[in-house]
Amino acid sequence: MRNRSSETFIYWLMRGFTYFIVVVIAYIIMDIVWNGIGVIGPDFLFEYPRKSGAEGGIWPAIVGTFYLVAGTIAIALPLGMASAVYLSEYARQGRFTRMVRLAIITLAGVPSIVFGLFGLGLFVLFFKFGASIIAGSLTLACMILPTIIVASEEALHAVPQSLREGSLALGATKWETIYKNVLPYAVPGMLTGSILGIGRAAGETAPILLTVAAFYLPRLPSSIFDQVMALPYHLFVLATQHPNAEAVRPMQYGTALVLLFLVLTVNMVAIMIRSRYRKKTKW
Amino acid sequence: MVDTGKKTDRKDVIVEVKDLNFYYDNVQALFDISMDIPVRQVTALIGPSGCGKSTFLRTLNRMNDIIHGTRVTGTVIVDGEDIYKSNMDVVSLRKKIGMVFQKSNPFPKSIFDNVAYGPRIHGIKDKMKLTEIVERSLKRAAIWEEVKDRLDKNALDLSGGQQQRLCIARALAVDPEILLLDEPASALDPKSTAHIEDLILELKKDFTIIIVTHNMQQAGRISDLTAFFFEGKLIEFGKTKQIFTNPVNKQTEDYITGRFG
Amino acid sequence: MKSKAWKEKAARLIFTGASSTAILIVLLIFLFLFKEALPFIKDPGISKLFDTSWRPVSFQGESYGIIPLITGSFLVTVLATVIAVPFGVIGAVYISEVSRKYEREFLKPFIELLAGIPSVVIGFFGLIVLAPFIKAVFGLQSGLTALTGALLLALMAIPTIISISEDAINSVPSTFKEASYAVGASRLQTIWKVTVPASISGITAAVMLGMGRVIGETMAVLMVTGNAAIVTLSPFESVRTMTATIAAEMGEVPFGSEHYRALFWVGIVLLIITFGLNMIAQKVFSKYGGRQ
To answer: For the whole model, what pTM was predicted?
Structure first.
């Protein structure tokens, strides 16, 4: 049997491994905040970029990201929630259900760049949407669909079976039961769970690279068939494609900070609401 | 098998079960059950855990339909209608047969909305009418005095016994003819249990009551007829007094006298 | 009553239809990847994909050998996994078995937060901070190496590995542990001899899903691996992965060209590899009774 002090040493070693990760995360966030905070201001946030992004602000990229995320939510949320209702309330063991589940698992594992290729082939070229908000949103929606389905199904499963039985026993039909006595209690959970997927859509670069993002487009889109700039792609362009990358370093950090702030705020809110919601719900 | 139930007058029978078999996937849970349940009486279903009494209860309002992979053979006739016929309207059947579950399941809504849930589903929108139904149902379930001042409060804040009576009120609100009670008092303290038992004796004036119970004394106190189930079979069915004092079947006797179960 | 029955049918139809879109999307992904890639088989011929080099733009004749890209992805993935697994597994064990309650309540969400940092931000950090650091430490000419990419990818795989492993470790019945304590094992012995072995299938699945994420990751590797399409097994060389190749080149190729079709083939190979990893992970998961 090992003695106590060597056991304590191993615990400290494990603690060290774990906190090393924490320190790295903290370091990344602090580095971005420290170097980016200086350029943040009304000019940077609300001005159009000038000289290929070397001067001016990032307003079109913020607006572009906002449009993309809004479009993605509008497509993926209803579809994902409805799929979850099917899986949780209607699905029986069988080939169709197995195929749906297999498809969800498969989608969850498809690399984001492959979604980009798919979006390019289907939405941009085949449907002739061109590189546009609609093509990008559809592509991102396909990507986050599994996250929304899984989160929504979990929320539906959290509603006790006794509520369904109680309603059915009173002569309610299945749909009446779902609509009046299941969904009202599941929707908050469905939404918060879905926010995590939405955060991912806001930060992804690879799928929009091929389907929507404009290299440099200092104006706002006028329809969903326009190209837009987007924060993640703008950061990528500034950091790797700009002829004078060193000189625009502050702009890069500023863009990174805005993107990081946006995505982390969304995720943090989701994580917080979720844990509170889990604690609060007792049946 | 002594079948005292058969001796009741035909037109007094409200539920007529014939050769009922029930399967979960390939496991048979009920074997050739036949019994006639009389109107406006309390019929108690007793037997050890897993004997099929709850499963049997749930075949009467087709609640087993919602469990995947179940199968029924035989007939169940309620009010002269075969409820397992292919074009049966399950919704109107469940309106006719109310059910109260073992674990009280008030909806996480206000007390008023709980009771009004059924009537609303069945198309009553008029606020006055709903108020009237809610009040009448709560009075019938003997809980009106306790909740009349807080109808808009969440039903989950009620005590366990109150929740169960609220569930009874909720079932009564759709005007059923039959009430199925699945061990309604098993999770309650003695005082609340007594309350529920008094209520059952009161309700049998207007409703046919079929109650599953674990508690032999309870069956003795409140039921007119008792059916003893064992391993998915109906062993004995007859007047409660006779079953308790002079059971015909050896297994029934053993169970009643507490030798197993 | 009629209208109720009608509503029931409509609801069922709508929900069934919605859930079938997942199947539809998967089919469309395969269909459209192959649709764009297939003409390559006729002209210039599928054997071009097995060339020894990837030189899509050249005056002496283009070559589209995807082997160097596969080895590039392979090298980066293996390195990243080797780095991520100890941190991921030890982190998961620490969080679920050793840490105190208040620690756990801070550690779990914090590490989940890492999963939320966009990969382009991680790549940017790698480019500006990590690459110069690697260059200085190892005395290299350039910090844009396979190792740099692998370190970033490991960082991105760790939250996946931790959160899924932690679930698996948590679901080990406490009776197992109690039995171990009862025969006089210490807490540490119980952890490594009982708890971890009992949850090994979940941990394996976690690692595989983490690897899937690593292979499919694009932006971070695109920004820091240097993107030289050469066959190498040295972590200090510049490499080019499949994902980075698609991302870097797709923007500049004419639609319908040989190069364009070759990039779709790269996408197909990538899709098949991740699909395979995913299926194996699921099998491992369900076979040993992980979360259903």
So the answer is: 0.88
